[in-house]
Amino acid sequence: MKPFVLLATRAEDLPADEEYALFLRYSGLTPDQLVRVRLEAGPMPRLDLDALSGIFVGGGPFNASDPFEKKSPVQRRVEAEFQTLLDEVVVRDFPFLGACYGVGTVGAHQGAVIDRTYGEPISVVPVTVTEAGASDPLLAGMPATFNAFVGHKEAITRLPSSAVLLGSSPGCPVQMFRVGENVYATQFHPELDVEGITTRIHAYAGHGYFGAGELELTLSAVRRAAVSHPSRILRAFVERYAR
């Protein structure tokens, strides 16, 4: 089988390593089938799409809507690399699934309006599948509404005409969308489980996702409802595109 690639941007080793482990666990792939590239550590290598089955993108600390002058040199480089990659991915309609930061990368590439209007605190939210989502292969067998882990400062306020809305939540209209037939992005985290999000809550306690003194409140928020369905999306992506 041609491998998949996980493009990651987390600089902290513990959440970065756990993110990779979660993608492996819930996609069903082995380390030789899912090659990780840590973009915060160095430039994106040239990806030969003909040698790959598909591309995953993990979450991370970058916000596409931040003013250019406030973005670090690393963020500017990574954003430019994604723009170049997506030029080819979108034209070829190559299998791509971006989780959380995927909204910033694919959304920015397609001209979506991304701002802080619909940011969501770290929590569990109900995601409702749209009519288009109900017939999408990655959401086959999913309930009409399912719980998912979120935690993001920015989100898409307006989708471009090139995108199809697949899922929405009460506090964030764009939770999942598709461009073409094979390029996907989710605002929620399909790779996360309770243990994984607990690690991230501790790792990013000082990064502005919740206020000082709200650690225990945030930990309680991610345990208030069971989350079991989103990880199916990773497995469905692999089953559909492995070649």
Task: Kindly describe this structure.
By secondary structure, the chain is of the alpha/beta class. It has one domain (4-241): 3-Layer(aba) Sandwich (Rossmann fold). The chain contains 7 helices and 11 strands. The chain has helices at 13-27, 73-92, 101-110, 131-134, 194-203, 215-221, 232-241; strands at 4-8, 34-38, 54-57, 96-99, 113-115, 120-129, 145-152, 155-158, 163-169, 172-179, 183-186. A 9-stranded mixed β-sheet has the order 2-1-3-4-11-10-9-6-7, with helices on both faces. The radius of gyration is 16 Å and the shape is globular. The chain starts with a strand and ends with a helix. The model has no long low-confidence stretch (mean pLDDT 96).
